[in-house]
Amino acid sequence: MKSKYPFNSALQSLDNQPHGEYEEVEYYENERGVVFVHDMYKPYTEKELEIIRKADVVYAHPPTTVGMNVFAERAGVDRNGTWKEFLLAIRKMVLELNKPTWILSSVADSGILKPDRLRHIKLYDHKSTMAVWNDDGNYENIEQLTQGLQERYNSAYDFSCGYGSNVREFKYMIGSDIDKKCLGYIKQEILGGNNEQNHNTRHNAQQS
């Protein structure tokens, strides 16, 4: 079983990536949610921290160390640090927010992330693991996990949101990514921004 929504993948074989069809968006917000450009190698601004603290849960499928180079090239940005630094930045964010958190992770990477526990789970057609903090829920597969989190929490934050597939069905979604065109997809297809005034600016979210 595959995701029913488009997702930003490093696998070239996938044909469900509408990447070139959308405008570049740096910041957009309405009553349904908010998206903004953010690179995990850089610290969050105070305004960005204010935004992500609105989330009830953090739920993310970050890239692998190999896929990360593909995503950076696709987004037209430089990769600014090591894989360990990326993982340490994730851990810092998780500890600072202190929210229920589910992050797709390898067993090896969990040694740096140091979650409360690892939960083995079926990710579509593959066995995988989730690093978990502040949550004792148990789910057998990714579909159950996503549905269960949606039932238990109103708002969710994904720090590598891509096309927003993880958080799009929460009542309020918060997403950040390095790829502005992915944010353009979310603005138009999930937040309905094509029917509203264009907020394609960094706005106050990028202010210290």
Strand and helix layout:
Elements: E1 27-30, E2 33-37, H1 46-52, E3 57-60, H2 65-75, H3 83-97, E4 101-104, H4 107-113, E5 117-123, E6 126-133, H5 142-152, E7 155-158, E8 172-177, H6 180-190
Parallel strand pairs: 2-8, 3-4, 3-7, 7-8
Antiparallel strand pairs: 1-2, 4-6, 5-6
Question: Your description of this structure?
Answer:
The chain has a single domain (23-206), classed as Rossmann fold (3-Layer(aba) Sandwich), CATH 3.40.50. With 208 residues, it is of the alpha/beta class. The protein has an 8-stranded mixed sheet, with helices on both faces. A hairpin with a 2-residue loop joins strand 5 (117-123) and strand 6 (126-133). The longest helix is centred in the middle third of the chain and has 15 residues, at 83-97. Helix content is 30%, strand content 20%.
Structural class given helices, strands, pairing?
alpha/beta
Fill in the CATH topology. Answer: Rossmann fold
N→C terminal distance: 43 Å
* Silhouette: globular
How would you sum up the major sheet?
A: 8 strands, mixed
Percent helix, as a range, is 25-40%
Summarize the structure.
The protein has 208 residues and is of the alpha/beta class. The protein has helices at residues 46-52, 65-75, 83-97, 107-113, 142-152, 180-190; strands at residues 27-30, 33-37, 57-60, 101-104, 117-123, 126-133, 155-158, 172-177. An eight-stranded mixed beta sheet has the order 1-2-8-7-3-4-6-5, with helices on both faces.
